[in-house]
Structure formats: C-alpha cells, structure tokens
Model the fold of this input.
Amino acid sequence: MNFTTVDRIRGLVEHIKADARKFGVLSTGEKIAVALVMNRTDWLNEAGWPSVLEAVERLGPEWLAAALQVQRDLE
Done:
C-alpha cells in the first residue's frame, strides 16, 4: 500500500468533514474513497454509483486498502 495514498485520502476526509459542500469537486475515485470512509452511501448514490459493490470495484485495490486504513485509523 502506498502511504501517500493513505495521506491523500485522510486529507480529503478532513477537508470534506470541514465543508461537505466541496464533495462535488472531488474526482470520481476521491468521491468513492471519501464516501466509503465516512460511511455515506447516499453520497455514492448522488455521485452515480447505484451500489456500493460497483463503487468498490471502480476504486481498485490500492485505493480500497488505503481507504480502509484511513477508516480504521479514525475509529
């Protein structure tokens, strides 16, 4: 796992926690990662992903592992 990806996702999560209106300007992968870390499936739906599994597949293994690490760190 690339630690810069973990740091990037962690920073994005903190950024969106501070101002959720900025979620819309994130890239597709960033939106998926942030929504999954923050457990916001409604954001996935709003971003056009009809299911969590499709969003996870789009995220890919590296970003999925990094997002999971960020979520675990926040618990």
